[in-house]
């Protein structure tokens, strides 16, 4: 999929998530008026899922993260929401119906943007290994990228938006490149922690279903 098409899909997803948020708020109001529970695990998961994906779409539109990472987040939230729905007991029919519609929209986005390979992750639970980043490679990319000016180390860590910014601005006039020399080790640790937590959560969800 071309970058322009990805951008258009992101805008459509942003609009869809905003509608989902409005629908969620209406659902909560209806449940409250009817004296029904609004603090269930499923309802909380729905809220957190919509909020997380909205933030990821916004980050992509601001060129802070890649589309691949956005799709990975949709896959992750799909699995969390699907598992919560399956374990939901005395939930209202309206809540379950809304959850299924939300799952369908996530599935549609994953299929259109991520393709069959990403789609298989929610069908087969074929979880990828942890993508561990190497500090040695990160510093190597910093060095060969003209001491961080080209932003290659940021591309390596998946920070596509700032990588492009570094490339176009000469590492933000060299100051950002110099900053990265001292912050790079922490940047690698943060990325690896994110990847490990995500992989652990997916593994936990997978074992819960088996």
In short:
This protein has helices at 3-33, 41-61, 67-87, 93-123, 135-144, 152-156, 160-173, 175-209. It has 210 residues and is mainly alpha-helical.
How is this structure best described in words?
It is a single chain. This protein is mainly α. It has helices at residues 3-33, 41-61, 67-87, 93-123, 135-144, 152-156, 160-173, 175-209. The longest helix has 35 residues, at 175-209. The radius of gyration is 20 Å and the shape is elongated.
Sketch the topology as an H/E string, one letter per element.
HHHHHHHH
Radius of gyration: 20 Å
How many E-type strands?
0
Distance between the termini: 34 Å
Name of the CATH class of the largest domain: Mainly Alpha
Major beta-sheet overview: none
* Number of helical regions: 8
Structural class: mainly alpha
CATH topology of the largest domain: Four Helix Bundle (Hemerythrin (Met), subunit A)
Regions with little confidence, pLDDT below 50 for 5+ residues: none
In total, how many domains does the architecture comprise?
2
* Approximate strand percentage: under 5%
Q: What is the CATH architecture assignment of the largest domain?
A: Up-down Bundle
Note the overall shape.
Answer: elongated
Please estimate the helix content.
Answer: over 70%
Overall mean pLDDT:
82
């Amino acid at each position: 999929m071309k970058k322009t098409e990805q951008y258009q899909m992101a805008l459509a997803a942003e609009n869809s998530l905003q509608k989902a948020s409005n629908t969620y708020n209406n659902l909560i109001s209806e449940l409250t008026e009817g004296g029904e529970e609004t603090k269930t695990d499923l309802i909380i998961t729905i809220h957190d899922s919509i909020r997380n994906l909205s933030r990821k779409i916004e980050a992509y539109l601001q060129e802070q993260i890649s589309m691949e990472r956005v799709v990975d987040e949709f896959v992750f939230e799909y699995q969390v929401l699907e598992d919560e729905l399956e374990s939901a007991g005395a939930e209202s029919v309206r809540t379950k119906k809304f959850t299924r519609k939300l799952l369908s929209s996530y599935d549609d986005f994953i299929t259109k943007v991520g393709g069959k390979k990403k789609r298989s992750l929610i069908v087969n639970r074929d979880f990828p290994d942890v993508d561990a980043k190497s500090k040695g490679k990160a510093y190597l990319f910093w060095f060969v990228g003209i001491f961080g000016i080209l932003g290659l180390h940021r591309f390596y860590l998946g920070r596509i938006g700032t990588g492009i910014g570094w490339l176009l601005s000469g590492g933000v006039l060299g100051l950002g490149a110099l900053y990265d020399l001292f912050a790079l080790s922490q940047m690698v640790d943060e990325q690896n922690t994110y990847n490990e937590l995500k992989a652990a959560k997916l593994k936990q969800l997978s074992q819960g279903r088996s």
